[in-house]
Amino acid sequence: MKSLTLSVVLCTYQGEAFLQQQLESLLAQTRLPDEIVAGDDASTDGSWDMLQEFAVSAQLRGVQVKLHRQSVNKGYVANFSDTLREASGDVLFLCDQDDVWYPAKLAEMEGRFLADPSITLICSNAQLVDAGGESLAYTLFDALGLKPHEWRAIEGGETFQVLLCRSMVTGATAAFRRELLDAALPVPEGWIHDEWLAMVATVTGRVDAVRQALIDYRQHGENQIGMRRRTWCDKWRDLVAPRHQQFSHEVSRMGVLRERLAGLGSKVPVLYLQQVDHRRQHFLRRLAIGKLPRYRRWFAVYAEAHRGYYKQYDTGMRSMLRDLMRRD
């Protein structure tokens, strides 16, 4: 079977506490990467020294290594964007500094790309672990709570609607064909690199998901973006929390998405553009609902539900309850 060239794109910042375990797991792959590109975001701890030492070991194993260090801290989205541009592989794997990859990760995902040329991006499940690497007894997909109809859409190649309404692709688990960068970069303001890459991938190709865990996804106090199961207290606070800023942000994000997708021309189905417009309009109406006294919100919420927008572009009954209960 023909092989692909695989690049691991690793970004670091103040990562010396967990970085060594991640680096070791990259060289423990049953299918070694062809290239590792690491971008350090101006760390002041020992991360840069660890990367330099690792480069020597990796190159002795036949793995090419490119290292880049930012002169000033640019933030993780900008650092990933810059580092991705340096990668030359057919398939690029996003890599965080604090996880541990299982030995079969690269081989499993390469096999899927080879078997189906229509796949643009693949994400996998992950075992959630604590700072010490002990299992939290549930996985990333458990925490996300993906519904059966969402799985049917993903497995049927209809991921756009799922990704439009929720982020389910976690960068630490994702890999994609290099061609995606031509359409996706630069990552626009208001978007995180992994969700943006997935969104563009699902309109220019296909997004697939591996249900098995292929990494240990470490949860600790310094995660840029972590993941855990929500408690009942979390759900109640979420129900009554103010939403004006969040909804305004979502209106802006949908505007940016609409503009960028329209710029891709015939690659993007007209239906997708319409769905983005509808979701943006939905959040504009939700902003207006939040300005009403609670006792006057019932009719507006019913009207939005009658349009079907809570179900199609949001979380259904939960979002309706938020609009009735939230403080704005």
Brief digest:
It contains 15 helices and nine strands.
Structure description:
The protein has 328 residues and is α/β, with parallel strands linked by helices. The chain folds into two domains: 6-218, Spore Coat Polysaccharide Biosynthesis Protein SpsA, Chain A, CATH 3.90.550; 232-325, no CATH class. The protein is built from 15 helices and nine strands. It has helices at residues 19-27, 47-60, 76-84, 105-115, 140-144, 148-155, 160-165, 180-184, 193-204, 232-240, 244-262, 270-290, 297-307, 309-313, 317-325, and strands spanning 6-12, 35-40, 64-69, 91-95, 100-101, 119-129, 135-139, 175-177, 206-218. Strands 1, 2, 3, 4, 5, 6, 7, 8 and 9 form a nine-stranded mixed beta sheet that branches. Helix 1 (19-27) runs parallel beside helix 2 (47-60), helix 11 (244-262) runs antiparallel to helix 12 and helix 12 runs antiparallel to helix 13 (297-307). It is globular.
